[in-house]
Design a protein that fits this description.
mainly alpha; 19 helices
C-alpha cells in the first residue's frame, strides 16, 4: 500500500475497522448464527470469484462480479447483518484485482462489500423481509416479499456508491457529489435485478427442495452474466481497433493529431440532435474518428510536403477516401461508417470527390461527417494559422449550406453547440510544431476557410478549412477566390 495516498489509506483503514465492528456480533456466544447457510453461501461466492480469477486477463471479470452479487444479496436475505458481512469478506479477499496497488484494492473491496451487505441485510430485516420468505411448511408471501428486497437493493446501491465516492475523493480528490451522480443511477437497475435473483435464491433455499435448488437461479444468472461480459469484451475490442487505427494515422500525419477524435465528438452532437438511435450515434462516432484513415495509403512525402502539391500529388491525395474504404471494408461492426469514410468529401452540388455524388445520393453519415470535419478544421489551431471562433466557423458553414453542406446537418450542429458548447479542450493545437505568430507570409484569413492556393485557387468554403498543409508562399495566396481547388491534403 506504499503507493496509496495517505488520505486513501486512512479511508481504507476506517472501512476495515467498521467492517470488523459489523462482523463482531456473529462471534458473540449468545447470538444464534446459521453457520451452515453462511458457509455454503460463502463457498458459492468464493467459487464465483475463483472462476473470474482463473480466467485470462481481460477475461470474464464481469462474469464473476455479476454472478457473485445475487449470492451476496441472498446472504443479506437469509442471514443477519454480521453473518452476511462475513460471507462478503470470504469471496472478496480471493477475488481478482486488475490494477495496482493490489493489496489496497483487495482489502478495500472486502471491507466495502462487508459494509454493503450488512446494510442491505439490516434494511431487509427492518422491513420484515425474513418473515416473507416462507419455509417450515409456510409459503412465501408474494408480492409483499418484493418491498423489503427492493429496499435492500437500494441500501446496497447507496452504501456501495457512497463508499466509492469517499475513496475516490480521498485518492483522486474527485468531488464526492460528482461520483455519486455518475455511479448511482447506472447501478440501481442492475442491483435491483440481482436482488430479485437473490430473493428467488433465498425462497428456494428455504423451500423443501433445499440449497441445491438455488442453483436453478444462480446458474442461469451466471450464464447471462457471461453473455453480458462477452458483449462488453467485444465492445472493448472494437474500441481498441479504432484506437489502433487512429494512432497509426496520427503518427503518419502529425498535422492533424487529435483532429479525428474531435470530428467524432462533433458527429455525435449532430447525430443526437437529429434524433438518431444509439446504434447509429455510435456508428457516426466511429465514422468521424476514422474518416481520414485512408491517409495511411498516401505517401508520407505527400502528406508532409511543404508548399503546394503537384497535379499528380493532388490526384494521389484525392484517393484517400477510397483507400480508407478499402482499409475498413472487412470490419463488420462499422456498417454505415464505411460509407462516410468513402464519401465525406462529396459536395451537395456534385463537385466533390471521389465519385461526384450530389444531394440525397450522398449517404447521410457522409453528410454529417463533412460538416463535423469542416467545423473542427476551422476551430482548431494549426501551426500555420490560428483557430477561428466558433461563431465564425458556424457562419461559414451556413454560408456554404446548400452548395457544399447539407443545411439540415449544419442546423443540427448549430443547435447542438448552442446547448452544449465546444470546450477549449476540443480546439487544441493539432500539429506537433509550436504555434508561430502570424507573420507577413502566413496564410491570410478570409471569408472562406480555405486560404487561396494552387494554380486554380480554392474550391470554396470548407474544402479548405480541412486543408492540412503547411503554410504556402504568399504569392500563391493571391490566387483568385474561385474555381475548384485541387490541393486536398485533408
Amino acid at each position: 500500500m506504499s503507493g496509496t495516498p495517505a488520505a486513501a489509506r486512512a479511508c481504507i483503514l476506517a472501512a476495515v475497522l467498521c467492517a470488523i465492528w459489523c462482523t463482531l456480533p456473529a462471534f458473540a456466544p449468545d447470538t444464534p448464527v446459521p453457520w451452515g447457510t453462511a458457509v455454503l453461501l460463502a463457498a458459492l461466492g468464493l467459487g464465483c470469484e475463483a472462476a473470474g480469477r482463473r480466467s485470462p486477463s481481460g477475461g470474464p471479470g464481469p462474469v464473476a462480479a455479476g454472478a457473485c452479487l445475487p449470492v451476496l444479496l441472498a446472504a443479506s436475505f437469509l442471514l443477519p447483518p454480521a453473518s452476511a458481512a462475513l460471507v462478503a469478506v470470504v469471496g472478496s479477499l480471493a477475488g481478482r484485482v486488475e490494477q495496482p496497488p493490489y493489496a489496497a484494492r483487495r482489502i478495500w473491496r472486502a471491507a466495502q462489500l462487508a459494509l454493503t451487505c450488512a446494510a442491505a441485510s439490516w434494511a431487509y430485516a427492518t422491513l420484515g423481509g425474513p418473515a416473507t420468505l416462507g419455509g417450515g411448511g409456510a409459503a412465501p408471501d408474494f408480492p409483499r416479499a418484493l418491498l423489503p428486497a427492493c429496499a435492500a437493493a437500494l441500501a446496497f446501491s447507496l452504501v456501495l456508491t457512497a463508499l466509492d465516492a469517499v475513496v475516490l475523493a480521498a485518492a483522486e480528490r474527485r468531488p464526492a457529489h460528482r461520483s455519486v451522480y455518475e455511479l448511482l443511477p447506472p447501478a440501481l437497475g442492475p442491483h435491483l435485478v440481482h436482488a430479485l435473483a437473490g430473493l428467488m435464491t433465498a425462497v428456494l433455499w428455504r423451500s423443501p427442495y433445499g440449497p441445491l435448488s438455488a442453483l436453478l437461479v444462480l446458474l442461469p444468472m451466471y450464464l447471462s452474466c457471461w453473455v453480458f461480459a462477452q458483449y462488453h469484451r467485444e465492445q472493448a475490442a472494437h474500441r481498441a481497433t479504432i484506437r489502433a487505427l487512429v494512432h497509426a494515422v496520427d503518427i503518419k500525419d502529425t498535422y492533424t493529431r487529435g483532429h479525428s477524435e474531435r470530428v467524432g465528438r462533433a458527429s455525435v452532437l449532430i447525430a443526437r440532435e437529429l434524433g438518431m438511435d444509439d446504434r447509429r450515434v455510435e456508428g457516426l462516432r466511429f465514422a468521424g474518428i476514422l474518416h481520414d484513415i485512408g491517409k495511411l495509403g498516401v505517401p508520407t512525402r505527400v502528406l508532409r510536403k511543404d508548399g503546394p502539391l503537384t497535379p499528380e500529388e493532388r490526384r494521389i491525395m484525392e484517393l484517400h477516401p477510397e483507400y480508407g474504404h478499402e482499409i475498413v471494408r472487412g470490419i463488420g461492426f462499422l456498417d454505415e461508417a464505411r460509407d462516410a469514410i468513402l464519401h465525406h468529401h462529396e459536395r451537395l452540388d456534385g463537385s466533390g470527390y471521389p465519385y461526384g455524388l450530389s444531394g440525397s445520393r450522398i449517404p447521410e453519415f457522409a453528410r454529417v461527417v463533412a460538416v463535423a470535419d469542416a467545423f473542427d478544421a476551422m476551430t482548431s489551431t494549426r501551426s500555420y494559422r490560428r483557430a477561428r471562433p466558433v461563431p465564425a466557423a458556424l457562419a461559414e458553414l451556413k454560408r456554404c449550406a446548400g452548395s457544399q453542406f447539407d443545411p439540415r446537418m449544419v442546423g443540427a450542429l448549430d443547435r447542438a453547440l448552442g446547448r452544449h458548447g465546444w470546450s477549449e479542450a476540443d480546439t487544441a493545437v493539432t500539429a506537433d510544431e509550436p504555434r508561430e505568430p502570424q507573420g507577413p507570409h502566413a496564410p491570410l484569413e478570409s471569408h472562406t476557410p480555405l486560404e487561396a492556393h494552387g494554380p486554380r485557387g480554392p474550391r470554396g468554403a470548407a474544402a479548405g478549412a480541412r486543408r492540412d498543409t503547411p503554410p504556402v508562399p504568399r504569392a500563391r495566396s493571391a490566387a483568385p477566390l474561385s474555381g475548384p481547388s485541387r490541393d486536398r491534403r485533408r
